[in-house]
Amino acid sequence: MDAKVTDHLAKVFAQYPLPVVSAEGVWLTTRDGRRVLDLYGGHAVAALGYGHPGWTRALTEQARSCQFQTNAVPMDVRLRAAERLVRFTGLGLDTVFFINSGAEANENALKMAFRMTGRSQVVALEHGFHGRTAAAGAVTWGAAQKWYGFPRAPFDVSFVPRGDLAAIARQVTEATAAVIVEPVQGLGGAFDLGADYLRALRQRCDATGAVLIFDEVQCGVGRTGHPFAANMYGVTPDMITTAKALGNGFPCAVLMMSDKVAAALKMDMLGTTFGAGPLACAAIEAVIEAIESGRLLEQVRRVSAYVRKSCIVGPVIGHQGAGHLTGLKTSRPAKDVQRELLERDILAGTSSDPHVLRLLSPYILEEQHVDLLRAALAELPK
């Protein structure tokens, strides 16, 4: 940090020793001139990498045209972004509510489930993460013991173990308003829940009248190599929430709803100031355009398969996850492997599983970059 600048930032984030001043493609440049391969993608946000020309151009043109207007004023860019997203998703979740963050998307999804069902209980999964706000934090595993901060949760929550089909039958009942789940858990270690488990959730929700919410804040918008994990698994929820990659760094999020959910909407039931801002909508359009025109879903599938094939070396003993939400299982603490990689100019992430190194790479990652990771891992102690 510049010696003349006083640091007034709240001390709530652990920080890497990585003072970034610029970035291009999949590379970060630090204040002291290091070039660091970014396999963390700004925590799953930089889907297109850095400096993508189409994304930059779209934001520049929209800023020159009109940088903001209230949702009380109709704008074509909103209609285009929603239509592009619905076509990209292809799941029949045809009603779109644009908002600002993944936590806010989950708050609104839970609110809709309560309004639709008149019930007061939610089922979530152990090790799941859904955000740091009141409702989203209430359905986040371990939040109450670590950071929740509110005097009480706003509703009853029951957590079920991952992969336990019998627990689904016991805990998802006629009293359950919603089941909220990350199809591929992010912070939980890039843990892939699998098609059979998600189908069981869908069937149980259908049987009990509960609403099924897929939180694809981290695993959505192409990260699995498919538009959404719901497409990959062939399981359609009643609502999908997503953010992160959706704007490639411009803050935005979305709640997508089935016709059944949309039928419950009333005027003024949902609201936002900055959601569906024209800059956010321009960013969303540009992200989807880049994914489709650049055939990035195919690239994610190909390159992520190469990661899994070639990077079981050194301290890495296995893998899990899907697409570019990859968990590399480590024989030693993942935080130590992460530190050692950063010393070799490669940035990776960790997770709540102490033996899972988490990769959230930009979709433009190529095999030559994976070779650099493999070579670095091969140098590390097992």
Please summarize the sheet with the most strands: 7 strands, mixed
**Helices and strands: which structural class?**
alpha/beta
Distance between the termini: 35 Å
Fraction in beta strands: 15-25%
Q: In total, how many beta strands?
A: 16
What does the average pLDDT come to? 97
Q: Kindly report the spatial arrangement of strands forming the biggest sheet.
A: 4-12-11-10-7-5-6
Shape descriptor reads globular
* SSE order: EEEHHHEHEHHEHEEEHEHEEHHHEEHEEH
DSSP helical segment count: 14
Features:
alpha/beta; four-stranded mixed β-sheet; 16 strands
Would you write up a description of this structure?
With 382 residues, the chain is an alpha/beta fold. It has 14 helices and 16 strands. It has helices spanning 41-44, 53-65, 76-89, 102-117, 134-138, 143-146, 165-171, 195-208, 229-233, 259-262, 278-293, 296-310, 334-343, 367-379, and strands spanning 20-24, 27-30, 35-38, 95-99, 121-125, 156-160, 176-181, 184-185, 191-192, 211-215, 239-242, 253-257, 316-322, 325-330, 346-347, 356-359. The chain has a 7-stranded mixed β-sheet, with helices on both faces. Helix 2 (53-65) packs antiparallel against helix 11 and helix 12 runs parallel beside helix 14. 51% of the residues are buried. The mean pLDDT is 97.
What would you say about this model in short?
The protein is an alpha/beta fold and 382 residues long. It is 37% helix and 19% strand.
Break the fold down into its secondary structure elements and pairings:
Elements lengths: L19 E5 L2 E4 L4 E4 L2 H4 L8 H13 L10 H14 L5 E5 L2 H16 L3 E5 L8 H5 L4 H4 L9 E5 L4 H7 L4 E6 L2 E2 L5 E2 L2 H14 L2 E5 L13 H5 L5 E4 L10 E5 L1 H4 L15 H16 L2 H15 L5 E7 L2 E6 L3 H10 L2 E2 L8 E4 L7 H13 L3
Parallel strand pairs: 3-15, 5-6, 5-7, 7-10, 10-11
Antiparallel strand pairs: 1-2, 2-3, 4-12, 8-9, 11-12, 13-14, 14-16
